[in-house]
Write a structure and sequence with these properties.
There is one protein chain. Helix 3 packs parallel to helix 4. The protein has a 5-stranded parallel β-sheet with strand order 2-1-3-4-5, with helices on both faces. The protein has helices at 4-13, 31-41, 81-94, 108-116, 127-134; strands at residues 18-22, 45-49, 74-77, 98-101, 120-122. By secondary structure, the chain is of the alpha/beta class.
Length: 135
Amino acid sequence: MHSETDTVRRILNELGDTWAIVGLSTNERRAAYGVAKVLQRHGKRIVPVHPKAEAVHGEQGYPSLDAVPFDVDVVDVFVNSALAGTVADQAVAKGAKAVWFQLGVVDEEAYERTRAAGLDMVMDRCPAIEIPLLG
């Protein structure tokens, strides 16, 4: 059985470099904006997913996960917990390899469904915090 730390490490280092960030907009005061920048510095391609479909950090935005016209490896979820389960289900349908629920985003049922579908998943953690711990 892998620990959650092993799952975090695998998602960040092994599962691919295209991260759809659901809830990412041009609002610099939102956590998603800063986390996306950290992911870019770590070599990840970010894909903003937000109803406004705004370009963020030089990357084209899309209004929904299913509107992204290419494969994504990881779906990073910055929406509130009540909406997160739907996004996790969309990530499974999209063929993502992993789902990452940000700090404060918790949905145990979505976690179980996503893991049962064969995806790696972490919940209530932040990649911008985890990346420096990998070294």
